[in-house]
Each structure stands twice: as structure tokens, then as C-alpha cells.
TrEMBL record:
Residues annotated for substrate binding in this entry: N13, N64, G74, N75, N170, E188, R189, G199, T200
Chain's gene name: dapF
Identification of the protein by name: Diaminopimelate epimerase
Family affiliation: Belongs to the diaminopimelate epimerase family.
Native organism: Ravibacter arvi
Pathway: Amino-acid biosynthesis; L-lysine biosynthesis via DAP pathway; DL-2,6-diaminopimelate from LL-2,6-diaminopimelate: step 1/1
Pfam families assigned: DAP_epimerase
Length: 258
């Protein structure tokens, strides 16, 4: 039996999208990893299933490129919304459910503004910050992201003694360009490499910068694959944020069958 797939990308973070409303997708971890393989498969940072869910427009089920089901993926969520509209399932506004709970999103042509989960705390550690924006994120400020060994340091932190035993973390490096403007590079857990953009990572960096520097946003973030923007409202407690929105492009690339 063949499976029809659709490839989407959001700021260069790319995903295999599958319409699984009839629950026929049965691939296991190893097969999903093969589909995401850039030499032997379709190639992607992750695979997303769109399924029915009572009470929502759809359910997003996300797998990292290693084939394991992941925590929330911000760019994947934006691409899932675009895919749902291309399938005629939703209009310019949608409400869907993902692993971290309910999300809303608005579409404006190729741009998707995705509501993210509230953030309930930022930990300040010796040389970095840590927060959870639906996925866990280590954030370190650097003077130049271009001169940072993202993969080398990323791997050491992801598998290191602090985060490794707890399931690992995504690792972000942020450079302040000016007020409300960051440049970010991310080592992604589950891809085990740098990706061209990470939505939950960019959100984490913007909120950490807002907390550290008193920014009110929106924070513009340049990533290797393009530009993203993060809006938020500060909560009453330090490190708490609500009404967080991640905005950027989400585009169809190609489709096929495997
Ligand atoms: N690319 C994602 C992040 C996906 C989750 C991550 N790889 C993890 O397992 O924690 C994004 O855009 O947020």
C-alpha cells in the first residue's frame, strides 16, 4: 500500500505531512526515521500526522527525524495549519490540539501566526537559561552565533550530565542585534543536528531576552532559514508569559507517494 505525503517548510524547518484522518499510517520509529533520512528517504526534520479529534479542527501528531514521537514543534505546528487549510479542513482561523495542549492559529496568505503554550518560568543557571515552550530549551547568549560551534556544543549539552539523563534538551545560541531583534541558531534534539529554524527554540530565546533585558516585543528573530517573530504578554510572576504567538512563513514544497 502506498502513502501520499506532502512536504512543507517553515523558515527552512522541513516536515513530511500526512493526512491520517482515516488512521491508516502504521509506520513504526525505524520506518519514520527512514522517511526523514536525507539520503535514503524523502528528507525532513520531522514527520507530522493530521488526525481527527472531537472538539478540535484536527490533532497534530509530531515525530522527530529520529522517528520518535516528540514534544511540541512550533514550526511543525505552523506547517500543519497551512497543510490543514490546503486540504480544505480549515479557513483562516483554526483551533487544534497537539501534545502540549490546545493551539489557535491565524493564516494570512503564506504566513501563519501560531498561539503557543503559556510559559511558567525561566531558570537562570551559571552560563545559560532553561525554559519549556512546549519543548525543553537551553538558551545561551553569545557575541557571534556565526562563530559558535552549534553542533559541537549542542551535542555536549544535549547528552551532558545535566540534561542528558532527563531526556536531553534542544540547545539555542542567541545573539542580540539590537533591542527586540535576535539572531539565533539551534541544535535540535531528535534531529541531532543544527536545523535552519526551531520555532519553540526561537520562542524560548525571545522570552529569555524579554526577561533579561526588559523587552516588550514583538521580538524579530533571524534564523539560518529566514525570519520569525514572537509576541507575548508578561505574566504577573517573573519568567511567566502568556498570549505567546510565533509568526512566520509556512510553505508547501512538493508531494509524492511512498
Ligand atoms: N523544530 C521544532 C522543535 C521540535 C521539538 C524538538 N526537536 C524536541 O524534540 O524537543 C520547533 O519548531 O519547535
Amino acid at each position: 500500500m502506498t502513502t501520499e505525503f506532502f512536504k512543507y517548510q517553515g523558515a527552512g524547518n522541513d516536515f513530511i505531512m500526512i493526512d491520517d484522518r482515516n488512521l491508516t499510517f502504521t509506520a513504526k520509529q525505524e520506518q519514520i526515521a527512514s522517511l526523514c533520512d536525507r539520503r535514503f528517504g524523502i528528507g525532513a526534520d520531522g514527520l507530522i500526522l493530521l488526525r481527527n479529534d472531537p472538539g478540535y479542527d484536527f490533532r497534530m501528531v509530531y515525530f522527530n527525524a529520529d522517528g520518535a514521537e516528540g514534544s511540541m514543534c512550533g514550526n511543525g505546528g505552523r506547517c500543519a495549519v497551512r497543510f490543514a487549510r490546503d486540504l480544505g479542513m480549515v479557513g483562516d482561523f483554526t483551533r487544534f490540539i497537539a501534545v502540549d495542549g490546545e493551539h489557535t492559529a491565524e493564516l494570512n496568505d503564506q504566513v501563519v501566526r501560531l498561539g503557543m503554550s503559556d510559559v511558567n518560568g525561566i531558570e537562570t543557571l551559571e552560563d545559560h537559561y532553561f525554559t519549556n515552550t512546549g519543548s525543553p530549551h537551553y538558551v545561551a547568549f553569545v557575541t557571534s552565533v556565526d562563530e559558535t560551534d552549534v553542533v559541537g556544543i549542542g551535542k555536549a549539552v544535549r547528552y551532558g550530565p545535566v540534561y542528558g539523563p532527563e531526556g536531553g534538551t534542544n540547545v539555542n545560541f542567541a545573539q542580540v542585534i539590537e533591542k527586540d531583534y535576535l539572531k539565533v541558531r539551534t541544535y535540535e534534539r531528535g534531529v541531532e543536528d543544527e536545523t535552519l529554524a526551531c520555532g519553540t527554540g526561537v520562542t524560548a530565546c525571545a522570552l529569555v531576552a524579554a526577561e533579561c533585558f526588559g523587552w516588550e516585543g514583538p521580538v524579530a528573530v533571524r534564523v539560518p532559514g529566514g525570519m520569525l517573530s514572537v509576541e507575548f504578554i508578561r505574566g504577573t510572576e517573573p519568567g511567566n508569559f502568556r498570549d505567546i504567538y510565533l509568526t512566520g512563513p509556512a510553505e508547501f514544497v512538493f508531494s509524492g507517494a511512498v
